[in-house]
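User: For a benchmark we're assembling, each entry needs the component sequences followed by a predicted structure for the full assembly. Here are entry 17's components. Please fill in the structure.
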Amino acid sequence: MGRAWVLGDGVSTDAVMPGRFNLTTDPKTLAHACLCEARPDFAAGVQPGDVIIAGRNFGCGSSREHAPVSIRETGVVAVVAASFARIFARNAVNIGLPVIRCPAAAAAIVDGDSVEVDLRTGTVISGGRRFDGEAPSQLAVRIADAGGLVELIHDSGWAALEESRA
Amino acid sequence: MGTLVEEIIGNRLGRSVSAGDTVVAPVDCAFAHDVTAPLAIEAFERMEMPLHDPQRVVLVFDHVMPAATVAAAELHQRIRRFAADHQVRNLFAEGICHIIMVERGYARPGGIVVGADSHSTTYGGLGCFSTGMGSTDVGVILATGRTWFRVPQTLRVEVTGELRAPLTAKDVALHVLGSIGGDGADYMAVEWGGETVARMTLDQRLTLANMAADMGGKTGLCEVDETTLEGTTPIDGVPIPQPRSPRYADTLHVDVTHLQPQIAMPPAADNVHDIADVAGTPIDEVYIGSCTNGRLEDMEVIARYLSGHTVHPNTRTVVVPASRRIYTEALRRGWIETIVEAGALVMNPGCGPCLGRQHGVVAAGERVVSTSNRNYPGRMGSPHAEIYLTSPAVAAATAVAGCITDPRSAR
Ligand code: SF4
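Assistant: Structure for entry 17:
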């Protein structure tokens, strides 16, 4: 169970990790700057187990992987959004940050609500309400189970993904 | 049989593929730049494998070049060390990655290219399936030479009508972005076609393909024709791709006959208006450059508008040719002299102020006209600055007048 941090529509990777703060690959430094301008209370207040809830097209814009890395490093267990931008969703899965597409949860949950997510089924639970989000694709599950894309391809090669549905 | 993207991927795999298929495909060339390369290198190192093929790797210093801070210098140092250790010789510090990939022939018709940068869609303009990914994906490509794709559905944009100067591909791209929204082509290939695109130069088509990224597109493609083949060399043994009895998920018809100069207002690039809606708004900074509009044609447009004028004293104007080749050619033609004499600041080729790290970072309350592709809050500096996106003609006319100006009312 964690706290919901609710953001709006079109939160870009520029908002998650402004270009002036990502001249590093150090996850801790990135986590400190996460959402520093869009949601200045986030980095100091976030606790492991919390969940980001957002509107449409979360993670749009730049391909910078510093954005999902910074979120993962804060201890956020998943980002739930009405929809995700393509590159962000792919990056998040690759580095082990679960993303759940769930427009109903995105519309109903308010900032500070307590939230729980089931990463296998994509179900989001908050205040006794259940929202059926999209379950992760077969391919996303394989990557997550291996601990990330690097680990999956390192251990099993591309054959591991050849038959999976994205 | 298929759309342009299905044809390109199918040709390379030697079997037909359809939208929705998941495929593992070879990558002709992968690149990363000074901000995304360090994370890609870390992912590559965790693969514990040799570099698949140094010749298929390109590393570009463009986002903070030359380094503006110690942190940036350290990133550069790390990339150079990696390149030396792994015999990567395709190292460039002479312009924006997307321009280099085209100029140097790493992106070619019928090819498959992946870049650790979202605007890697750009080379679709010459009929190459190119897309942006994150650093981890690119790190894995460095080790294996391959990646996975879900073959995308295609949104065909059929453009008709005469595009009258000073309108350009940028106005068309902004107009389409405004109509379909920043996620209007999410996960899709945007296929640009129609008589208007057929008449466009390669530079203009690259601008269209570039901005497919801002519609959420996985790639932005133009058909390969004589114009393409004059400026590029196809890959040996790979067929020139063309759509064959394509099935499009959606088709958008755009008639540009009466199109007005377009402007994207804050807070996002899909907030697009006719210029008349905001003409006269005072502007503190004009930035002309970027992977969308820093090409030779764009330098010519700016020189034409600035010739015989000085930029408005309240409007600092920063011009960044997108590559060394563009810079030197514009010098040779006298355009840079014209631009400098008009009082604009000409910076070395690279991303310049586009992402708020150097060369014209903006303060709270300031308004900017930029020819780039992004205007998110904080993109160019303070999150309380306002960024307006336009064509180079609008930007240059604005630089002279000091306020947002319809170039048709300038000279
Ligand atoms: S010019 Fe701007 S949009 Fe283009 S690659 Fe550079 S930072 Fe990205």
